[in-house]
Amino acid sequence: MITNSHNRTGRFLFAFVVLLFVVPPASSAQMLNLQFGASFSKLDSKIGKATTTFLDQTRIDPSVFIGMEYLESKYWSISSNLGYVHKGGKEPWFNVNSAGNVISTSTASEVFNYLSVNTLFNLKYPIKERWTPYVSVGPRIDFLINHDHTFHYFDNPGYLQKESYGVVAAVGIRYTFSTFLLGVRAEHLYNFNHLASDGLETNNTNTSIISLTIGSRFGPHRNKYK
Fold it and tell me: I need a labelling partner for 19 at 20 to 30 A (CA). Which of 101, 104, 145, 201 fits?
């Protein structure tokens, strides 16, 4: 279960992310970004201190984010993003007959669908005129929209948490075509709270995302870093 301390941390992160998410209109956003790619997710589960294999194989699902970049300088910027991401895992499922013999196999899968909000600090280092590698880090909070499942364990009252909060860490590179940008990025979602817990067993998502990014500068700064 989540403690009061975890709840306070979640509320603080939520307030912080939302506050920064409304900064762009006030600071004049300088770039609109679209990120679309794939999430790679599995569960890390434990019973007590013992690791289990529950849903520990990787699912691959689509993800999409839209965001604004602002307070931009040559070497750093701030960005806020809103997106849709899938988390979960899968494992082999063995169907047996009355004698206990395996008669067929399939895959048991669990997927949790989230609306995700984050605000990131981006550290950039332009090279080769138009190439810009960067690293990004910042807080995020994810809101569970729905989930498709095999295991009704997650339906038990109080087990499954409706929000997931933590930090995004990303690395990427992009190429600038005047006001148009194209790039790739990889990111990992670190969590501060559990996906689910019954007091003995804990389940955590382990999720990474690889995306193609498309951006467009606008406003008075559109030709600033050609």
Answer: 145
Structural domain spans, the chain = 4-221
pLDDT tens track of the chain, all 226 residues? 444 555 555 556 665 665 555 555 545 568 889 999 999 999 999 988 898 888 999 999 999 999 988 888 889 999 989 999 999 999 888 777 777 777 778 788 899 999 999 999 999 999 977 899 999 999 999 999 998 877 777 877 788 888 898 999 999 999 988 889 999 999 999 999 999 988 888 999 999 999 999 999 876 555 454 4
Taking the whole predicted model, whether its pTM rises above 0.70 is answered as yes
Pick the CATH number of 4-221 from 3.60.21.10, 2.40.160.20, 3.30.950.10, 3.30.1490.20: 2.40.160.20
CB-count burial class (<10 Å; 0-12, 13-18, 19+) for 90: buried
CA 2 – CA 88 distance, rounded (Å)? 20
What residues contact 105, with CB distance under 8 A and at least 6 apart?
Answer: 92, 93, 94, 95
Which tokens is 105 given? 């196999």
Query: In sequence order, what E strands does 29-130 have?
Result: 31-47, 50-52, 59-70, 76-96, 102-124
First to last CA, the chain: 51
